[in-house]
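#onboarding

Welcome to the new folks! Below is a worked example of what a typical request in this channel looks like: someone posts a single protein sequence, and someone else replies with the predicted structure as tokens. Don't worry about understanding the tokens yet, we'll cover that in week two.

Example request:
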Amino acid sequence: MSPTPSSPEPVTPGPPRDEPKPLLTQSWLDLAFLHWAVDPAEVAPLLPSGTRPDTLDGVTYVGLVAFRMHRIGWLRLPGLPYLGTFPETNVRLYSVDGQGRRGVVFRSLDASRLLPVVVGRTAFRLPYVWSRMTIDRDGGSLTYTSRRRWPGPRGAYSRIGLRIGERVEEPSALEHFVTARWGMHSTVFGHPTYLPNTHPRWPLHRAELIECTEDLLTAAGLSAPAGDPVSVLYSPGVPVRFGRPARAGGNPPG
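Example response:
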């Protein structure tokens, strides 16, 4: 008889664990979070072995998240000012493993620095893609653009424009669900892997979507969105610490 997966851990606005000896450090700045509801059955085949779609009231979500990566650093070394700083745009899904750990699964990570793309693809087996990218700010409005270079599909693009709104004092259940994520599920050299992270509680703002044209979701193997995103958020950002990878899937020891 197959073991029964554990119930998902609670969604907590702050990290459930500390990472006193981080493997990686970085900051995520000027983030735009766009989310659409999707059927869990559509995304289940796209997730790593040992994970299943994480759901809220029977629905899961696909996220298009654009931001500025700032000063990636290894261990406790200072972050890199040039090679470790660049715009990035991610397509991500929401997952839970057999131990109940909630996380994200990246279907694509477009970045404007070639070396981090190569390192991410070779060392971490993540679907990084080299793209031309810009983030432009005009007062309280931001525009994020991305056009793919390598490995493809060449020319896949996104353009997101938003206007920053009021601070979110009490995030909704959905706003917590799509932002309060404390790990990443992936497959490294054939093994399901969970990479934990910690950061302060998100400072969130609601945002008005001015423009969104993209084909990154379909390039990532998802259906084209049927309408506007159900959630649009902005955050000025947080510092982030990644712990060491652990085996994903399976049940906790009992």
